[in-house]
Design a protein that fits this description.
The complex is a heterodimer of chains A (282) and B (415). Chain A has 282 residues and is an all-alpha fold. Helices cover 78% and strands 2% of the residues of chain A. Classes of the chains: A mainly alpha (282), B alpha/beta (415).
Chain lengths: 282, 415
């Protein structure tokens, strides 16, 4: 263990123990977890009347329905995950070079390009989707997995591109030149030099992209036409019908990937560990 | 049961309106509904074999989903080799818009919707837009079980069915109350007005944007008009202007005694159900009395829930399934429509622990033994006897009347 690493570790633990940080952590965790408690309780309750604190009867009926083949919750979980993963991958493939160009280079019309990339976050997706629906119908993409995947890129791409543009704005491309001069081929340069440097940003961008795609409702409904069934569609079916028990059970499944990703990603979000790792590599 | 196909939120109405505008921006070919090319039921059955039916229907009730996927789906697979895909939607207008969009895009023979649970305004949109497949009733063997002489089956909210849809359920508005809490619930709109004043904060109704809120307001309208007879037929603005002020006066008179002094109204029937479940209000109502039993079974309503119709009668309707003009599986969809009309499927659906929906077929047309099996079905104690209820059934209004009443309520009562 190098001296640098020890110092960094010490910094982390000192930060972690300080009062305000603890307070913020507890606040954050309760803000994240408290709203989920009623949903979890609803999912196993049979009857729960105001103003009772706890349900008057419990039942696993909602969970039995959720896991039955009729509800199609599990296939929908698979479809939602696959679409979100593919959307993340495609966003990264498109967003990485786009972010690099925006972050590193000055070119004519750059602000116009930036505005165009931002546009989907300003213009409501529904307005775009209504027009796209007709186009997709003609292309035979409406109601297909591919169509839904493509339309999810509209809201996800800006997050990836903007995060990557921010990362590349603070990135010095000369280290790539150094690697190339030492004999690394372009792939090695990307894998050993560029990727470690941009990894924290890439992870944050991917996290955003995944969750934005994960939570799409209107776009999936319009372009998928009910044939591409994702979890938000099923969730809304029961939420609007006032079925709190089934809504609670589906919600429990619905939040899983978000929680898992957050736990996996949290380590990288500060960038500190990655910095330590890259120091060790050097 | 029309509450299900027509349930809608203001967001959806806005959205659907938007889609309709987009749709209307494109030239609309005024083409007549498609007629069937099949000559006999045998031909239909052989064409249907191996087909898939994409049935778009409101998906917010697990028991209905299970009945359709498991029972109807099972029958279709086992007996006819047809795959049923139930596609749950929040609002029937979603499915209507898919067909509308496909028509614009020129997809006239391989659409994605094969069957829709529908009635009322959505049926009108589809029939008038030439979006339906019609003229196949004589092919369906179980069509003989339907009493087409009954005007409330032959007309869907005042619009002639014309062999463009097949009846699935009958529904009739009823009130529910908790017998352990409320002793003498009001049995007419006149009694309700006094009851609301005696029990401030104990009653409310969903806004007119909600299907059930709208039908409650129509009952007040019928009361103000002295019965529905004056309101039947096409919309007449003179009649409307004569009756409407009386109806608004009644509702405005009630307003200060409503839940939260009438400052706000629940925006969906599910919210009224929640208020009733939480004992914040004493009365609940629904276009489909089966929901009372379902809610008791789901633990949402108390076990002591009971229901009743009004002395002057309550509004009833029929809801249907329809096949879009561009369905690529029309034969399989017709077989599905025939299966849901069968005595077995209608009886299964009428069971209190399955759904409890009133049959759309005329059970008097069944053999005595079969008929007996219907009348012997145990009824959920929370659900009013459909036979008693249907003795005083009031007709539905033409959709133009309904829109005028809903709009008038927004302007004169809700504001």
């Amino acid at each position: 263990m190098t001296m640098v690493e020890i110092r960094i570790r010490a910094e982390i633990s000192r930060d972690g123990l300080s009062g305000p940080t603890w307070f913020a952590l507890v606040l954050l965790i309760s803000w994240l977890i408290l709203p989920l408690i009623p949903l979890a309780v609803w999912s196993i309750s049979r009857s729960w009347f105001f103003p009772d604190i706890t349900p008057s009867a419990y039942s696993l009926r909602a969970w039995r329905y959720v896991f039955s083949s009729t509800s199609e919750v599990l296939p929908a979980l698979g479809v939602t995950t696959l679409i979100a993963l593919c959307a993340t991958l495609l966003s990264a493939i498109i967003g990485l070079p786009a972010g690099r160009a925006l972050g590193l280079y000055q070119f004519r019309g750059k602000s116009a390009v930036e505005l165009l990339i931002l546009a989907p976050t300003i213009v409501p997706g529904i307005a775009v989707a209504l027009g796209l629906h007709v186009v997709f119908l003609n292309l035979g993409l409406a109601g297909s997995f591919l169509g839904v995947l493509i339309v999810h890129l509209i809201p996800t791409l800006p997050y990836m591109v903007l995060v990557m543009a921010g990362v590349f704005a603070n990135y010095n491309p000369e280290i790539e030149a150094q690697a190339r001069s030492l004999g690394a081929d372009p792939f090695q340069t990307f894998y050993y030099v560029t990727l470690p440097a941009i990894l924290p940003g890439l992870l944050i961008g991917s996290l955003f992209t995944f969750l934005v795609s994960w939570s799409q409702y209107i776009l999936t409904l319009l372009i998928g036409g009910g044939r591409v069934v994702t979890l938000p569609l099923l969730l809304f079916n029961f939420a609007s019908a006032g079925r709190n028990d089934i809504t609670g059970a589906i919600s429990m499944i619905y939040i899983l990937p978000g929680v898992v990703l957050l736990l996996l990603g949290a380590r990288h979000l500060t960038g500190r560990n990655t910095a330590a790792e890259s120091l060790r590599q050097i | 049961m029309s509450r299900y196909p027509s349930i809608s939120s203001s967001v959806w109405q806005g959205l659907c309106l938007l889609i309709t505008y987009v749709a209307l921006a494109f030239p609309f070919s005024a083409q007549a509904e498609t007629k069937t090319e099949y000559k006999s039921w045998e031909e239909v059955m052989s064409a249907a074999k191996g087909g898939t039916v994409n049935w778009f229907m409101w998906g917010g009730a697990d028991n209905i989903n299970q009945y359709v996927s498991d029972y109807i789906g099972g029958e279709l697979t086992e007996r006819y080799g047809i795959t049923l895909k139930r596609i749950g939607i929040n609002d029937t207008a979603e499915a209507v818009n898919i067909v509308l969009g496909e028509k614009q895009a020129g997809i006239d023979d391989k659409g994605s919707v094969d069957l829709i649970w529908i009635n009322g305004g959505n049926f009108r949109t589809m029939k008038q837009g030439g979006l339906l497949f019609c003229g196949y009733h004589s092919l369906l063997p179980n069509n003989k079980l339907v009493n087409w002489q009954n005007p409330s089956i032959a007309n869907d909210f005042g619009l002639a069915v014309d062999e463009c849809e097949v009846p699935w359920n009958r529904a009739q508005f009823a009130f529910a109350y908790d017998s352990a809490r409320t002793e003498n619930p009001p049995k007419s709109i006149a009694e309700l007005i006094d009851w609301v004043k005696d029990n401030p904060g104990e009653f409310t109704y969903p806004a007119a944007t909600d299907f059930n809120g709208s039908v409650f307001i129509r009952h007040v309208f019928y009361h103000a008009a002295g019965g529905p007879d004056a309101l039947l037929g096409d919309f007449d603005s003179k009649k409307f202007d004569a009756i409407a002020p009386k109806a608004w006066a009644i509702l405005n008179e009630m307003k200060p005694y409503l839940w939260r002094e009438g400052e706000t109204y629940p925006n969906a029937i599910a919210n009224l159900a929640q208020l009733f479940a939480n004992r914040e209000v004493a009365l609940y109502f629904d276009y489909d009395p089966a929901i009372f039993g379902i809610n008791v079974e789901n633990g949402i309503f108390p076990e002591t829930t009971r229901s009743y119709g009004l002395k002057d009668g309550t509004i009833g309707n029929t809801n249907y399934v329809a096949i879009p003009y561009n369905s690529p599986n029309k034969a399989a969809a017709m077989v599905a429509a025939n299966v849901i009309l069968s005595a077995d499927a209608q009886r299964e659906k009428a069971k209190a622990d399955v759904w409890g929906a009133a049959p759309a077929i005329d059970i008097n047309r069944l053999p005595e033994e079969e008929k007996q099996r219907f009348t012997d079905l145990p009824r959920h104690p929370a659900v009013v006897d459909p036979a008693t209820l249907s003795k005083k059934a009031l007709p539905e209004l033409h959709p133009d009347w309904i829109s005028a009443i809903e709009k008038g309520w927004q302007e004169n009562v809700a504001k």
